[in-house]
Every structure is written in C-alpha cells, then in structure tokens.
Amino acid sequence: MIKWIFTLFVNFLSISLLIAQNPAPLNYPKGYFRYPLAIAPRLNANFGEMRPNHFHMGLDLYTLKKENLPIYAAADGYISKVKIEPGGFGNAIYIAHPNGLTTLYAHMNNFMPALDQYVKKQQYLLESWSVELLIPNGLIPVKKGDFIGYSGNTGGSQGPHVHFEIRETATDKCLNPLLFGFNIPDQVAPDVYSIAVYNRDLSSYDQSPLIMPVRKTAEGYTSVPLRVNFDKLVFAVRATDRMTGVPNNNGIFMATLFENEKAVSSFRINGISYDETRFMNAHIDYKTKLSGGAYFQYLYPLPGDKLNIYSYSNPGSYLKLTDTLKHNYRMEIKDAYGNASQVRFTIQQSPNSFIKTVNPGILMKAGELNVFESPNLQVYLSEQALYDSIYFKNSVLIGGQPLTFSPVYIVHTPLTPLQDYMTIRIKPDKTIPYPLRSKMLIRKISKDNVTVRKAEWEMGMYSSRFREFGTFQLVADDQPPIISGITQGANLGKAAKITIYVRDNFDEINNFRAELDGAWLRFSQRSNTFSYVFDEMCIPGEHELKISVKDEAGNTTTQTYTFRR
Prior knowledge:
This protein is mainly beta. It has four helices and 49 strands.
C-alpha cells in the first residue's frame, strides 16, 4: 500500500511539470473500489466533460430514471464529511479510505439512519439546514458494500442520478474514476469533428480560429491542407467520446499532437481540484463557445491557465514554424480506456507575413494587476483574473428607469472569461434618498442572465464584486420578498409537509428562517421553495409558525401563521 501511495505521489509530481515530452503513466489500483449501485453499470456523464465554468469532476451514474435506489460504499473507510446545500451537490457523503483516497456520492435523497440522525442533530445545534460537517475519524465507519443512503435528484441535479467522485484525500484533487477498473464497457473511440488553429501573437480573444473540418476514413480522420500567414501556432480540438451501447456525448480524456511522429504537445484531463476547475474557461476557446459555437480544447495553455494538465516539448506555449515547407501532423485523441482516434493534416506557412492590426481599448495582461478608472466608474482586476491579454473597452448607455441611480455601463464583453472576482465601483448620478442608501445593489446583465449584488459605499462610490464582464447599473431595491404556501389557521392533520414559496423582485434570497413555537425548525431548500416534512419536532396540537425572509438588499418580510396538527 505504501509503495502504491508513493507511486501516486510521483505521478502527480510528474504531471505538474508543464514542459515534458510525454505525460507520466497513471497506475491506479484496479478492483479496489466497487460500483456504488446494484444495477448494471451505465453512465449519464463521464469525468472531464465541459460544463459552464467548470469541468465535470466525476461520473454521473445512471439510476434507471428513478430515485431512491440504494447506494453502497465503494470501499472500506469512514464517513469523513457530509454536505447539504440547495444547489451544487445537494445531499452528499464523503468517505475517506485507508489508501489515501476519498469517494463522494452526491444528489442523494436520504442518508442511512445513523448518519441521518447525526446530521439532523448538528443542523439543529447550528440552526442551519445548509451544512458542511466534518465528521471525526472512525465515528461512522463503513465496509465495502455497506448501504449508505438512497439516490435522488437534489441540489443542482437536472434529473435522477448519482454523482460519484474519487479524490486524492491530501490534495482534494479529483481523479478520473474510469482509471480504477470499473466494469463499465467501452470499446468506442472518440468522435472528432474539427481542428482549430490560432495565432499565438494575438490574444485568443482578438481572433477567430482557422477551422479545419475533418473527414473520417478507414485509416482515421483527415483534413485538407491549411496555409497560415503566421508562425506561432496553437491548436485546439473539437471532439467527444461515447461508451459502448450509450448514445451520450461525453468528454475526451487526452489529446496529443505529433510533428513527424514526435509528440510536441498534449493535455490529459485528470487530477483537478475544485479550486482549479474554473480554469476550464482557459482550456477552451471561450469566445467561440459563448458566441454559440462548440467546445474547442487547447493543446497548449493560455498565459493565465494554471492547470497542470499540459505537456509540451518546445520552450514556448505554441508550435513555431521556421520555414515555408509543408509540415505533417498527427493528432491522437483518447478516452480513459485507451480507445483512440487519429487525425492527420498538413500545415504550411505562407510567405506573406501576418499584419497585426491596432486594437482600440486599454491593454490589460494576464498575470498583472489591471485597473480602469474614470470619474464615475472604476474596474479592478487582480493578477489572477485574466487568462490572456485583452484590450479593455467600456461604454455608457442612458439609464432613466425608476430606482436606478447611474447610467448603464457596458464593461468589456461577456465573451471574455474571468478566473477571479473583479471589483466594480459606480458613482451615483443623482442624490439617493436616505431610506434607500442601505438598499443599494449593482445589477449585472450578461446575455439573459441577470444577477444583483449588495453594493457597499466606498470612497464616494458604491462597490461590489462580480466574476463576469457584462452590463452594470446601480439600482435601489425597497421591495421586500413575498411569502406564500400556507393559510392562516390551517388544519394540517392530514398533510405530510409544509411548503413555503418565496418570491422576490430580483430573485435573490439572502436568508430564510423558520421558527415553530419560538424554536428554529429545519426547512430544506430547493431554489426559492422551502419544505418541512413533519417529524417529532411538531407534535399534534395548535402551533405557531414564524417565517422570516431577507433579500440581497436587506429587505425583510416576516409572517406568523397558526395551524393545527
């Protein structure tokens, strides 16, 4: 066991070295983990799929389109953490194993009885339904195959399934579970659609790629020759994977570029933590995707990409053409089982040199602190915010709607992603009435997505933080939330639960609290719907239920109901 853990450490150390000819081999123990369900293995989604702002960090296990299938511990260990949240994983269990790995089971409906009672006790002690509980070593041990709870559709789930992960306990990096020998059939090679080529002398956000569609033949995929008028090339691939007997398009595991049969660059999606998963926006052609295109995955990292998934042999993060001869390339795309597809293509540099155009705007670079300041608008980007250089632009539109206190500011473009939060400061364009000064928000509109954040008064401006560029405006919110779902004096003797619905003009609920006869009562949350299932906390008789809801601006609504049970 110690030897295997040392081998795992050496593998991760090798992966962290960016400049390498080939990625280090991955040797994980086969057969250590069992499949967590007692049905035939099948996946709804695999590890490494591209999702909005993140990689898919585990396997989505098919549950026959049903909820409440029993889930079993994948190996011996102890339950080390439980997480309950309205979005994300919903109800999730973490099991620590003696081999230095942790397994995660998410979107569950219910936990096993002993764990459920422990969690419920902690929730009442903390007076919070949303919890992240670290459980002492050995308090709740499990054996391989022990029942731990039921599958469900909680949190950010879009349908019944189990989200399953394997993590390195010490680093919290997620590993590809398909590398651990689960008996999930797959003899299907990845499907390849096209290759994209970029000019590294330009920012990825200042260009559109040259697309090379591919054609499938008996020997693999081919493409027509491409001529370019620049010498620093970056490649990306559009490809998906499928598993035997399942039509779903899944993510690919690995892609390698060969020049004259010598590996020159590659990526392998494995060993990624949740602190790093947002760098997926640097791994893809974000501009093309958000403009309505497909996912193209880079084989070289952008300047601000900190993922340790790349290997390349040349000193720069690009391929350099030094002549105008034809160069033969091969790209190999693999899934986690080693099924591979090959693409062969030719690129030639044109004698006509590339002419770089002058971009309007303020140059901002990855890895640097970038600041835009004007009398009425300030934007601050940390050194970690950008993946590649941009020419920052902004413009102003006339406001004028009720309870707005600034023009509409178009801050750069949502086609450029951000890794870190940026600070936005806006100066009011008219006097804000005193009662509204504590109710100020900054509203962001990015495509069809509208969000608001509480605005704080700083240095003569209202300030807040956002993680996307877009359209911003200073607004006031004096409308409290609306509570519904229960009637005064209701007889709930035959009811199984109480459901409360909350509506807010900006759809941002900051806090929900329920009290039964003066004591905190555990309501679960799904979006802006809150539910309490009757249990021993509500005995037969007359009761008083007090509901308090606060929105992002601090507006609070409190309603008190009497009911009989």
